[in-house]
Amino acid sequence: MSENKIWTREFVGMGLTNFFYFMSQYILIAALPVFIMDDLGKGQWEAGMAMTCFQIGTVLCRPLAGRIIDGVNKQKLLLGASFLFFLLMAGFYFASSLHAVWFLRLVHGAVFALGTTASAAMAALVLPRRRKGEGIGYFAVCGNMAMVIGPLVGLLIMDYLGAHPLFIIMSLLALVGMVA
Question: Which of 89, 72, 74, 70 shows the shortest CA–CA distance to 10?
Fold first, then answer.
């Protein structure tokens, strides 16, 4: 019976890590343009470029992520990527220029690609063979839940607390993801 169990400590940890990676992306999709336009005094084009920088980082790293993950200890790689992810989220707090935000978003995209690919690979490893499809479906829901609530959370935090508290909260979420 236990060999067919999906909801193990390891699987829940991978799901939570994936959730927090995706939460960062979806919170920033909604909140970062507001920060760029209101706090940095830039326009829509510059805000859109911040979103594009993330996608460039993700697209450039995603094809390499699988090779990197297959060549190293997956758990150590995920822990390292999660630590970098935490540093990136904390970096937004100190970003006072548009170029700093663009750089952080570019690296954020690369770390996101590596971290989400590693967490998916590890989730697949801990799932029982007979229930892999079901388990991967549950794992994907973690990203979908972040897609649903992330933008709302980002806009609410920006509206009620502002950018710097948002970046502190993002750092704390990254820390929780690293622990998970």
Answer: 74
pTM of the model: 0.90
- Between CA 61 and CA 68 the distance in angstroms is 10
Query: Tokens at residue 26, please?
Result: 């979806």
Query: Over the stretch 13-59, which tens digit does the pLDDT of each residue have?
Result: 889 989 998 998 899 999 999 999 999 999 999 999 999 999 999 99
Measured in whole angstroms, the distance separating CA 105 from the mean position of its chain's CA atoms is 11
- DSSP category for residue 37: I
Contact between 175 and 86 under an 8 Å Cβ cutoff? The reply is: yes
**Residue at 102: amino acid letter:** W
Neighbouring C-beta atoms of residue 167, cutoff 10 Å: 22
If we measure between CA atoms, which residue out of 34, 36, 32, 54 comes closest to residue 46?
36
